[in-house]
Design a protein that fits this description.
Length: 282
């Protein structure tokens, strides 16, 4: 009887210990497993980042631009990008086939000089891209009618400045109807305006002289019947010259007041023609 009692007692103790040990171990493992899973999820969320790209923006691009007829230059389109990405320009739709824009510099020009009497308005979309996103703006180019015949007074001669060559060599030159420093024939008794409103004329005020290359050639400025309006390169700027009916010279010269070698010759004819004509410089 003693032996049986001890065996039963010990067996109960072992059973009790086994049950407690197994329950505790299982609860502990489950608890740590749950904590580990939650931590991993929180850690992955905090390290996830979302990249973004700012769209480029035009810098003061006007929706309507006025351009004198017979000039090819329009404007220089500028844009900025918050990410400092390299930008490219292009045109889309409308009259894009009659225009051209430099993809890098944004210089916008006509492929052929516009004629107000043929077409007075052009439209297109200007697009700037940073390679990922792009921005588009519609523009309208209005052509300004200028006097071109003796029936329209005063006659107007559009002037722009561009790099080229003439009898003085290379560099910036006055361009008229696409020609660098051409000879110009004016008629005695008539009034002419040399339009310098294109921004390329800035710092290049035109002057007249009886000496080739004007003051740069040792001559003086010709001032008889000459008036100036505005500053070269600003809207509405021009040099107006009423050729004296009794002018005592057959040749004058136009030149830049600031820079040497930009101009050409003016031939004066009797009051019998129909205006001015452009011929190649010899």
């Amino acid at each position: 009887m003693r032996i049986s009692f001890v065996s039963i007692f010990l067996g109960a103790i072992v059973a009790t210990l086994t049950a407690c040990g197994g329950g505790g171990g299982g609860g502990s493992d489950s608890s740590y497993g749950g904590a580990s899973t939650g931590s991993t999820g929180t850690s992955g969320s905090s390290t996830t980042t979302t990249s973004s790209n700012a769209a480029p923006a035009f810098a003061d691009l006007a929706s309507t631009i006025s351009v004198n007829e017979n000039q090819t230059s329009i404007t220089t389109v500028e844009a900025t990008d918050a990410d400092a990405d390299a930008l490219t320009f292009s045109l889309d739709g409308g009259d894009a086939q009659e225009l051209s824009i430099d993809s890098q510099t944004g210089v916008l020009v006509f492929l052929n000089a516009p004629d107000y009497e043929t077409k007075a308005t052009y439209q297109t979309d200007v697009v700037v891209s940073d390679g990922t996103t792009s921005t588009t703006q519609a523009i309208t180019i209005e052509i300004v009618d200028i006097a071109e015949t003796s029936g329209e007074a005063p006659l107007e001669i559009n002037v722009i400045v561009d790099s080229g060559s003439n009898g003085y060599g290379g560099g910036n030159k006055y361009y008229i109807n696409g020609s660098a420093s051409p000879d110009i024939t004016l008629e005695a008794g008539k009034t002419y305006r040399f339009l310098q409103s294109d921004s390329s004329n800035s710092t290049h005020p035109m002057r007249l002289s009886a000496q080739a290359n004007g003051t740069h050639g040792g001559g003086s400025e010709y001032t008889s019947n000459v008036d100036y309006v505005g500053s070269a390169g600003s809207s509405g700027a021009y040099l107006q010259f009423t050729v004296p009916a009794d002018i005592d010279t057959e040749t004058l010269y136009y030149y830049c007041q600031t820079h040497s070698g930009m101009g050409g010759r003016i031939f004066i004819t009797a009051a019998a023609g129909t205006g001015y004509e452009i011929v190649g410089m010899n």
